[in-house]
Each structure stands twice: as structure tokens, then as C-alpha cells.
Amino acid sequence: MVDTPTADSRGEPDISHVNPAEQKTWFGHPPQLARLFTTEMWERFGYYGMRALLTLYLTKHFVFGDRQATGLYGGFTALVYLTPLIGGYLADQYLGSKRAVKFGAIMMSLGYFVLCFGGQTATPYATIDGQRTTIQVEQVAGVETRYVVDGATRLKIKGNDDKSVDLLAADGTVTRHIAPDGFQSDADRSPLFVAIMLIALSMISVGNGFFKPNISTMVGELYAQGDRRRDSGFTIFYMGINLGSLGSQILCPFLADAVGWWAGFGLAAFGMLFSYALIQFDGGKLNGYGEPPVRAGQKDRALGIFTAATLGVPIFYLLFVNLMNMAPPEPGSGIVGYVASLSLMGKLLFGTFTIAVPGILIWSFLKGSRQEFQMMLAAMVLIVFNVVFWTLFEQAGSSLTLFADRNTDLHLFGIPISAGQTQFFNAFFIVALAPVMSILWSGLAKRNIEPSIPVKFGLALMGVGAGFLFLVWGTQFVGPDFKVGIWWLAGLYLIHSVAELCISPVGLSMITKLSIARVVGLMMGVWFLSISVAQYFAGMIAQVASVETVGGQVTNLKVSLDTYSGVFTLISEWAIGLGLLLLLLSWPLKKWMHGVK
């Protein structure tokens, strides 16, 4: 038998493959991008819909105080950014991205469904000078009023500017004046349903760790090395994040108010299930992408990994319990007392970060060249400032949401909206401004005047401060109801969105360019660790803005307005000051970066 000669042996071009120009594309990109785009969009729909409700759910349904609620929120978002380090590694080594995404989607959707089971609203009570009394909540025309029940008499609770409390009779006369420390509010809440809620947050944290990093990895696999469409493909993909969050931050809070908390969380769960279905039932469109690594003699460890991940849920549960029981630091205890008062989660995050940053720099000094050390030093300085940026920026889901609920006139073009829905402003402005900022940076780059990465970081920090300063300015124009117009809050989110677009798109790219090749993966881990640390400390900052409540409601809106104004002013001063410092450091940092842009 004579072998049939191949095209190559005849010196002729191989035309047996499909011409790429004849393949179907999606806006000039691989058609699989459309499915991954939609998968990410629905996953973010679920996550941001749930996040828009979480702080309000904790303060209104479980009637936690501000300190517990914002601390728990910060701890949860910290884990959300930390777990992808583990999920990404396990997918790379054993699972493959596709199976990791499916498992993550199932865990997250189950977590959202579990949140639907919150039980009855907690029953508030007050302890007055050591004696427990019943709190009654009355709602008239959408306005809630709290009363102390004294036998057959109801006494309206009125908070004073000095944080003392007056109890008022039906005719408005003061029947009793209570000193600031003599009135303590809490609630009877079911330990079972609190545990269910914490288990749900633990499941979401685990699931996110498997989903978040690996869906992005699958997008990267669509493009060959050197394909110039890669950056624009990721730009399209990330637009799905903001489209998903934009829709959910409107719909989930609406359902929570109109139907019940379970409906808002249920919609988030269905969005997550739809995301799972797009991957699970792909009709073979994603064959060959996100597959497990093939190594000779390696057994499939998926079952063991999924089992271990499920066992991680009770570990996270215990971390949340420890976080909720965290006591505030003693006055005058200083930084040592502050660190000692951190929860176990806080100590682990803070300790790991403070060891990793100098440790890697020492290794770089000893093992790298002078240029490599300088580039790593520049990266670490920017990572530290990145912590500051996200700590202040991520007040959106905690203190800013509570400010919206308590001290904002929630009417948009005359249409009433809920406090949770105000978070949609950020997603809307990102979608609207991302193309504008991209054109701006490109135009400046063509003229060789595009700001350097340190300058962009500095401008972002100053932008965060300017946003808070804008809102504080708006508090000067409140009426007798002590509520700012919603456009002041929208203005803050507009300024913050511009700041986000200065720092967020360049962060990961900066790390990959500045890191020594041998530790680039480790540096990526430190970058995500920095965001996780920032999320945790964002919760700590929100705790500083805590306002005393009775049954989830403040009793003096002037006190809450003054508290928020003071904290937001302090935030703006620190942010603008540190932004100016980074601008001053931008010259040596640019020199240490050795041409990296």
C-alpha cells in the first residue's frame, strides 16, 4: 500500500481545516464569549442582588445593631474575595475551570435559597436602667414608630441630641428622661434562624471561590497567545458584571419591599441557577474549554475536593460567629489593643498581609536584581494604597446603604425607591462611563500624556474622598426631616465610579507586569488578599459610623445625620490626603517601574 501524500509533503498549503474567517463570531469574538458573558451576567445578578439586601436584612429583619451588621457584612465580603485564591488553584491543578464553575454555581444558588428562610422578624426590646421592657412597633402610612409598653400605657421613644432618651405620653409631654447609658436596645431573635443565615453566607463564600476566578480563566482560553482581541474580549465580558448588577440592584430590593425578604433572595437564587444552566447545558458549545488538566497517573480528585469544600462551610460559620461576638477595643488601648480586639478572621487577614508584604520584598531584595526589586517595591506600595482605596470605596453596601435608609429622601424623579436600590447608581455609572474613560485614556496615550499608574491610583483615592465630601456638602441643605436629596447620594456614586475606573482596570495588569516572573502567581494572591483585607476593614470603618437604634430604627435623625457627616468628613480628609501623598510619590514610583505602563 502506498501512503497518500499529505498536503505538506507536496509543498501545498493545508486547506483541510476550517477557515477562521468563515467561522461565526460574536461581535468579532469567539461565539463562546456570548455564553460566558451571559453566565457571568446572571451570576453577578444573583450576587449583587443579594448584597443590596444584606445589610438592611440584618438590621431590619434580625434587628442587629449597626456594629454587628456592618461587621458581619465586612467579614462576608472579605471571604468572598479571599476564597477565589483557593478555588483558582484547585481548578488549575485538579478540577478544570468548567467543573469548578458548576460546583460554585450550585453552592451559591443553594446559599441564596437558604437565605429565603429567615423566620419571623426579631422582636425588639429595651433595657431601661437595668429593667427589661417591651418595644412595640407601629407602622402608619409607611412610617414606623417605636413605643415602650409600660403596662397599659404606650410611651413614644424620642432620642435627644446628647444621645439621652425621652419617653413621651400621647400628648407629647415627657414622662421620663433616661441618661445616654441608661437605655439599651436589643431583640429576641431565633438562634436557629441566625444559624441558618450564617450557613447561607458560608455557602455563598465557598461557592464564589470556585466560580469567580474560573469563569474568567475560561474566557482567557478562548484566545490564542498573542491574540489582540483578548483585552477587548475581557472588556466585553466584564460589562456583563455591571449589567447583571444593575438589573438585580433594582429588582431584588423591589421584591423584598413589595413581597418579602424571601422574594428578593429568591430572585437572586433563580439568577444564579440560570447561570449554572448556561454552563451545564451548553449543547457542546464549550467542549474543550475549562477541561481538567491531563497528567499521567493522576486520579480524578473532584469528589474529594467537593467534599472538603462542603466541610469548609462549618469552618466559615464558626468564623462568622466569632466575628459577631467581637468586642470593641478598650478606649485608649492604642494600635495593640485594636489588633487584639480583632476577630479571628481579622487577625488572620491582617497578620497574613503584614507578613506577606515585607517578606516578599526581603526575598526580592535577596534573590532579584536591583531593577526587579525596585519594580516589586513599586508594586507593593501600590498594593498598600489599594487596600486604602477599597476600604473607603466599599462603604456602599454598609454605611452608605444605612445612610440612604435613614437620612436620604428616597424619591427619584418623584418615584419612591428603596435604600437597597440606591446601589444601582454605581453599576449604572460604570456602564455609562467605561467607554468614555477608555476613549479618554486612549486619546491621552496617543498624545503621550496619559497619567502613570501611580497617578491614576492617587486620583482614584482623591476621587473617593471627593465623593464623600460632596455628600457631606449636601447635608448642609437638609430640611426639618434631616434627609438629603437623593441626587447628592447619586453624585457621590458618580464621583466614586470615575475613581473606580481609574484604579480597577489597571490593577491586575500592573501586578503581572511588575512582578518577578517566579512569583507572579504569589503576587496575584497578595493583590486579592489586599482587596479581602480592605473588605474586612471597610466593615470596621462602617462600625465607626454606627448609630444607636431601637428595633432597627434610629430615634433621632439629627444624631444619625451628624454621625454620618462626621465619619464621612474624616474619610474624605484621609482619602484626599493619602491621594496627594501618592501623587508626590508617583515620580519615584514611576522611576522604579522602569517603563511599565
From TrEMBL:
Pfam family, one: PTR2
Biological classification of the source: Bacteria, Pseudomonadati, Pseudomonadota, Alphaproteobacteria, Sphingomonadales
Family, similarity comment: Belongs to the major facilitator superfamily. Proton-dependent oligopeptide transporter (POT/PTR) (TC 2.A.17) family.
Transmembrane segments: 70-91, 103-122, 192-211, 232-256, 262-281, 302-323, 335-363, 375-393, 424-445, 457-474, 486-508, 520-544, 564-587
UniProt GO cellular component terms: plasma membrane
Keyword Ion transport tagged: no
A GO molecular-function descriptor: peptide transmembrane transporter activity
Name the record gives this protein: Peptide MFS transporter
